[in-house]
Amino acid sequence: MGIALFIMTIICIASISLNAMYHYDLKRITQQLKEVSETDNTNERIRTTTQLKRVNKITDGINQLIEQQIIERIRYKKSLQSQKEEWANVSHDLRTPLTSLRGYMEVIQKEDLSEADRKYYLSIMERKVDDLIERINVFYDVSLIESESIKIQREFMDINIIMSDVLLLYFKEIDSKNIIVEISEGMHEAYIDQQATFRIINNVIVNAVRFAERYINIQYYTVGDKLIVTIENDTSEDIKEPSRLFERSFMGDVSRQGAHNGLGLYIVKALMALQSGDARIEVSEGVFKMVLEFER
Fold first, then answer.
1. 183: which strand partners?
2. d(C-alpha 48, C-alpha 279), whole Å
3. pLDDT, tens digit, 9 for 90 and up, residues 125-154
4. Please, which residues have CB within 8 angstroms of residue 276's CB and are 6 or more apart in sequence?
């Protein structure tokens, strides 16, 4: 009877002690959670003084949630900073041609300007307007891609027709730089969305015309169920990380030059993916090659 009473007493003491430890730990966890929730940008974790397994499982779970929240906060800050930089670039990219247009308008309004000079400045303004429209189109494409609002409707089409239409748009630039364009003849069908593919080829040709020095070479060939389109141009640019040119936030010199602030190739990659295709860049000494893979 005495031994039974002793055992019961030990069990009661142990139970009371364990309950007190649980109560202490839970009270401490509650206090720490309050401090974490009231502190901005904290990296604090929940800690316990005891080694109770059940309490440790709770704190481990809470700390995993805190860790995830820290990761999301860092990702959000980076995204927010990237958006601020992009909006600053958008503002600059739109303000610059508009300011230029205003200047030319003031020039052509002068009464002593000859008719020949007036036509010359009007032709410059026309190119500036076309460039401004293209910039706006690029920003619009990005907004559609980011909001997942693009609706792809694919059909079998001859890509060479789209390629020819795009090249005609940049005939003046190609002619003024004395660039030789070589392109494969014949029909080259693929399963594509016409509008999305037009934007893809347009952005690639814009990039090629901008950096080509002597030639642009366009070839088509098939591999299994894929139609491969390669647009190759010579260049003096030193491109060390070609795959990163597709990144929206990449700040490399090549990807950020010219009218489109580097977003053109980002759009190419995104629109190719939406058509179950792919885009990659191959660079060798003095040669830049865009490789587009379409389903056929």
1. 218
2. 52
3. 888 888 788 778 877 788 788 777 788 899
4. 295
Contact status, residue 261 vs residue 203, Cβ threshold 8 Å: no
Write the pLDDT tens digit of every residue in 220-268.
999 989 999 999 999 888 777 888 888 875 544 443 344 444 688 889 9
**Cβ-count burial of 28 within 10 angstroms (0-12 exposed, 13-18 middle, 19+ buried)?**
middle
Token look-up 């952005």 returns 203
The pLDDT, as a whole number, for residue 262 is 64
In angstroms, the CA 81 to CA 7 distance is 65
User: Taking the CA of residue 222 as centre, how many other CA atoms within 13 Å lie in the half-sphere pointing to its CB?
Assistant: 9
CB 229 within 8 A of CB 294: yes
CB 265 within 8 A of CB 246: yes
Single out the residue of 252, 241, 251, 246 nearest to residue 283, CA to CA: 241
What pTM was estimated for this model as a whole?
0.63
Query: Are 159 and 189 in contact, with CB atoms under 8 Å apart?
Result: yes
Q: What is the DSSP letter of 156?
A: E
SS3 44: coil
User: Chain-centre distance of CA 274, in angstroms?
Assistant: 14
CB environment 140-176: b (16+ within 10 A), e (fewer): ebbeebeeeeeeeebeebebbebbeebbeebeeebee
Query: Which residues have C-beta within 8 Å of that of residue 257, sequence separation ≥ 6?
Result: 210
